[in-house]
């Protein structure tokens, strides 16, 4: 299927590894020009150069913290306006809420709520003027099914979801081709899951491998998802065909969420 987005420009956060990388790759394979952002320059350069060899579109990159105003400015210095924004950065650390201070909450809110909102604010009106725009916020299944040790994520991301539910339905955006949706990963085989399982392994004394197998068995699909399948779904959400989809929270979790709605 031709997604009809070749030649568009996409900003993809957290793009050197994991889910962000999957999204950048899938979009670039559709002919979308991408600006990839993440912090570690060597890892990002490798990822971008590898991708650039595989696709015909332009692949630009900038090593920056996308959750800060300076990092966002650095991304826009690569390309002035975007048709697609994939809001993504690392998730907050796991832990016990009794150990978190105000500063920990502010960091989580900055990274997982306020930074995506800043990028939405910066892009959607221009998208509406040009008649096309796609925002995909990578959040977490923990918004629907909270994970006890991920309280910072459960809380901060819910704030983003609440904001998106309102703004995505503004007629002046939707009627001019701009959609805003959240894509909620369940368990995906990336470095992030190693970190969260690693913390649990330390707590329980089990080996990381045993925990991985146990966790995969809990998913009805009996496996973790891959960055490639996540990216392909994200690219579809950015497609012309997905123009009637807005304000939605789409779970991609191999059937793990046990509810009807
Ligand atoms: P990952 O494998 O750890 O990759 C994170 C990517 O984001 C890396 O490229 C990292 O590179 C970059 N990054 C982190 N902080 C950044 C920042 N401040 N600015 C720019 N780039 C940043 O993580 P993932 O599994 O792809 O997860 C992506 C998001 O989905 C996270 O928010 C995670 O919490 C959420 N999620 C993941 C899963 C899962 O199973 N994988 C499940 C639920 C939710 P640098 O470190 O070099 O910046």
From TrEMBL:
Query: Which family is this sequence assigned to?
Result: Belongs to the short-chain dehydrogenases/reductases (SDR) family.
Q: Which InterPro entries does the UniProt entry name for this protein? A: NAD(P)-bd_dom_sf, SDR, SDR_fam
CDD domains, A to Z: BKR_like_SDR_like (cd05344)
Q: What is this protein called?
A: 3-oxoacyl-ACP reductase
Q: Which SUPFAM superfamilies match?
A: NAD(P)-binding Rossmann-fold domains
């Amino acid at each position: 299927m031709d997604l009809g987005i070749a030649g568009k420009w996409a900003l993809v956060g957290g793009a050197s590894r994991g889910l962000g990388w999957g999204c950048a790759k899938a979009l670039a394979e559709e002919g979308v020009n991408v600006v990839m952002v993440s912090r570690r320059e060597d890892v990002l350069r490798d990822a971008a150069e590898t991708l650039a060899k595989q696709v015909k579109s332009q692949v630009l990159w900038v090593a920056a913290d996308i959750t800060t105003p300076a990092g966002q400015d650095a991304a826009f210095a690569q390309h002035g306006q975007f048709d697609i924004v994939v809001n993504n950065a690392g998730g907050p650390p796991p832990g016990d809420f009794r150990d978190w201070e105000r500063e920990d909450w502010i960091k989580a809110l900055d990274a997982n709520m306020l930074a995506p909102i800043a990028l939405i604010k910066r892009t959607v009106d221009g998208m509406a003027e040009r008649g096309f725009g796609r925002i995909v916020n990578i959040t977490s299944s923990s918004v629907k099914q909270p994970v006890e040790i991920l309280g910072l994520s459960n809380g901060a991301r819910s704030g983003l979801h609440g904001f998106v539910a309102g703004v995505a339905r503004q007629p002046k955006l939707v009627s001019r081709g701009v959609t805003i949706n959240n894509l909620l990963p369940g368990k995906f085989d990336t470095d992030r899951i190693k970190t969260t399982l690693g913390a649990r392994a330390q707590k329980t004394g089990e080996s990381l491998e045993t925990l991985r197998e146990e966790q995969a068995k809990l998913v009805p699909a009996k496996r973790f998802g891959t960055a490639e399948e996540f990216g392909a779904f994200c690219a579809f959400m950015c497609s012309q065909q997905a123009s009637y989809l807005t304000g939605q929270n789409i779970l991609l979790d191999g059937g793990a969420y046990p509810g009807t709605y």
